[in-house]
Amino acid sequence: PLDALNVPPLDALNVAAIAEQYSGKRSDGAGGDHPNFVSAVPLSPLTLASLYDGLVPNLIKEGPPLALYLGIYEALKSLLLRNTDLAPVVCYLAAGAVGECVGSVVRVPAEAIKSTRQADGSVTVAGAVAEHFRDGRGRDNLVRAWSVAIVRDVPFGAVQIALFEALKSYLGGLEHPPLGLDGGSFVGEAVLGSLGGGIGAFISAPADVVVTRLIEQRGETDGPTAMETIDDLDDLGPVDMARAIYAEGGVAAFFEGSGERVLYWAPAIGLFLTAYCRFR
């Protein structure tokens, strides 16, 4: 998919921001965005190339799940619109949620490999696969991550496409749309897709932090963190992980890397839904 090729650097910064907080290497020790981390990245060719670590797993992470998502979305949307009296926006939400739920089964294992590569560039793809699949503990950790990924991906998938479809239909019915924005044009679809993607990305950011931290806990940590007060770090479940994150920085800690997440997904979903409308 085009979005997986065009915006991996922002995704890498998002994962690195969350991983940096987890490892306890942040200089300020607080939650929130990472202005110091991002501005400290040297713009050398080697560093820029490292932002594309995890590109192949990212393609695997996005391609098959998106195919499942759209296939199920279109089939279920048509079924609901034809056979129920539900409002169209409810049909969009339900179809998007079910499609994303199925797609997440494929997405989470690939995301674990991608995040491991981005958090530690010295780990090979084969090493990342072995880390998460070679024993029962790694596989159990993926199941825990998937249980939270559902909470992240289902509302994200539902909101992004429901907003897009609803606004597209609304603008299409206006004789003089605001700002001359035609919902059926290439630019209009890109803007509406970006809006849906950005809003969906922001509201699902807290669950994304929990998922990333569940994935990252499979490896070893360096330095003291607030999580050292909790026994058996490598076996934290979703609820305990959420408590640990809250203990580190309160509510703000759940939005760690949210700026990078929105900057990643807004243009990515804009490209994705524009291409989707061109070919459907």
Automatic annotation (TrEMBL):
GO cellular component, one term: membrane
A Pfam family of this chain: Mito_carr
Cross-referenced PROSITE patterns: SOLCAR
Solcar repeat coordinates: 87-170, 184-280
Keywords: Membrane, Repeat, Transmembrane, Transmembrane helix, Transport
Subcellular location: Membrane
Topology term for the membrane: Multi-pass membrane protein
Keyword Transport attached: yes
Chief location: membrane
PANTHER family: S-ADENOSYLMETHIONINE MITOCHONDRIAL CARRIER PROTEIN
Family per record: Belongs to the mitochondrial carrier (TC 2.A.29) family.
UniProt-recorded name of the protein: Mitochondrial carrier family
Source organism per UniProt: Micromonas pusilla (Picoplanktonic green alga)
Lineage: Eukaryota, Viridiplantae, Chlorophyta, Mamiellophyceae, Mamiellales
